[in-house]
Structure formats: structure tokens, C-alpha cells
Design brief:
This protein has 86 residues and is of the alpha+beta class. The protein is built from 2 helices and 5 strands, in the order E-H-H-E-E-E-E. A hairpin with a 6-residue loop joins strand 2 and strand 3.
Length: 86
């Protein structure tokens, strides 16, 4: 299985920049783990009512889409548990 590349939207990059360094590294490491095995990842759910998936990292959520044809994970949003779905 090949590793998917990871792309971040401007909003996701901004969210990463605003969080504490240790949390940022934790989230980034979980996204890297996801890229290695996107179909068998833990703490991932398909979103209801909109396309994409949700990765749970503690109290943070990473909203992303998966383009299997190009082997790309596009990280759309990163945010706290309550506000990221709005």
C-alpha cells in the first residue's frame, strides 16, 4: 500500500498555526498515520450530511476528504470538537 500525500487548505494551516506546539505536532502525527493507512485508521468516521471524513485527535477534529485516484488526503478544517462541524 502506498502512502497518500497530504494537502492542507489555508483554513487548516491557520488553525494549526494558532494551536499550541505540542498539540500541533500531535495532530500532524495523527494525519501522517492516517496517510499511511487511510482505510484502516482508528477514530475515523464518515460525515453525515456532507462529504468527507472526521478524524478525532483528543478534543480536536480534523475534517478531510480522500481522493483515492490521486492518493491525496485533503485536510479541509481543523478545530475544537464543538465548532468544527458548523
Amino acid at each position: 500500500m502506498s502512502i497518500h500525500s497530504i494537502e492542507y487548505t489555508k483554513q487548516a494551516v491557520k488553525a494549526l498555526a494558532s494551536m499550541p506546539a505540542n498539540t500541533r505536532e500531535w495532530v500532524k502525527s495523527k494525519v501522517q498515520t492516517l496517510a499511511a493507512n487511510p482505510t484502516g485508521a482508528v477514530n475515523v468516521k464518515k460525515l453525515v450530511g456532507r462529504p468527507g471524513y472526521r478524524l478525532r485527535v483528543g478534543s480536536w477534529r480534523v475534517i478531510y476528504t480522500l481522493d483515492a485516484g490521486r492518493l491525496v488526503i485533503l485536510v479541509l478544517e481543523i478545530g475544537a470538537r464543538g465548532g468544527v462541524y458548523k
